[in-house]
Amino acid sequence: MRYVVGVGDMKAGQKGDIIVTHALGSCLGLMLYDPVMKIGGMLHAMLPLSKINMEKAQANPFMFVDTGVPELFKAIYNMGGLKGRLIVKAAGCGSPLGNNEMFKIGERNHTVLKKLLWKNSILLKSEDVAGSKSRTVHFNISTGQVIISSNGVETEL
């Protein structure tokens, strides 16, 4: 199956699945992969903290980094994934409008992610964050391979 993750969305899959998200600018794209179980998931979170709108966060926790990240981990654990085996990768968290962006959403998304991971003793294996480019992410659950496409250039994360 091929799944597309929209803004404020999350998908989890298994061997044979491909998960894609488009237009990561300031949003966080987070990928989790368990290489033993061949399962994984992707989150496309828009804003750092749910406290700005608790009603929206309750209706859609994937919209926010602080509520979406734990939900992604829970989904993978519920599929049989184990914390000690997970490969964690991040993309996005940029400044599509340049360094003068007033609210620094991308930077704040990255900071909240790093704090959440640190508090739970989880390390990022790799990341492609910051800058002003837009990213498309292809995540192959069979192999764990994550490909970032930006401005016609593809790189493996």
Protein topology:
Layout: E1 2-5, E2 9-14, E3 18-24, E4 28-34, E5 39-45, H1 54-59, H2 65-78, E6 87-92, H3 105-119, E7 126-129, E8 135-140, E9 146-150, E10 153-156
Parallel strand pairs: 1-3, 6-7
Antiparallel strand pairs: 2-5, 3-8, 4-5, 4-6, 8-9, 9-10
Protein architecture, described:
The chain has helices at residues 54-59, 65-78, 105-119, and strands at 2-5, 9-14, 18-24, 28-34, 39-45, 87-92, 126-129, 135-140, 146-150, 153-156. By secondary structure, it is of the alpha+beta class. The protein has a single domain, classed as 60s Ribosomal Protein L30, Chain: A (2-Layer Sandwich). Strands 1-3-8-9-10 form a five-stranded mixed sheet, with no helix packed on it.
Radius of gyration computed on alpha carbons: 14 Å
Number of DSSP E strands = 10
- Helical content stands at 10-25%
What summary fits the major beta sheet? 5 strands, mixed
Question: What is the helix/strand order?
Answer: EEEEEHHEHEEEE
CATH architecture: 2-Layer Sandwich
Please state the average pLDDT score: 95
**Parts with pLDDT < 50 across at least 5 consecutive residues:** none
Give the spatial strand order of the biggest sheet.
1-3-8-9-10
* CATH class type: Alpha Beta
Q: Report the structural category.
A: alpha+beta
Approximate shape: globular
Task: Tell me the fraction of residues in β-strands, as a range.
Answer: 35-45%
CATH topology: 60s Ribosomal Protein L30, Chain: A
| Termini Cα gap | 22 Å
Q: How many domains in all?
A: 1
What is the count of DSSP helices, taking H or I runs of 4+ residues? Answer: 3
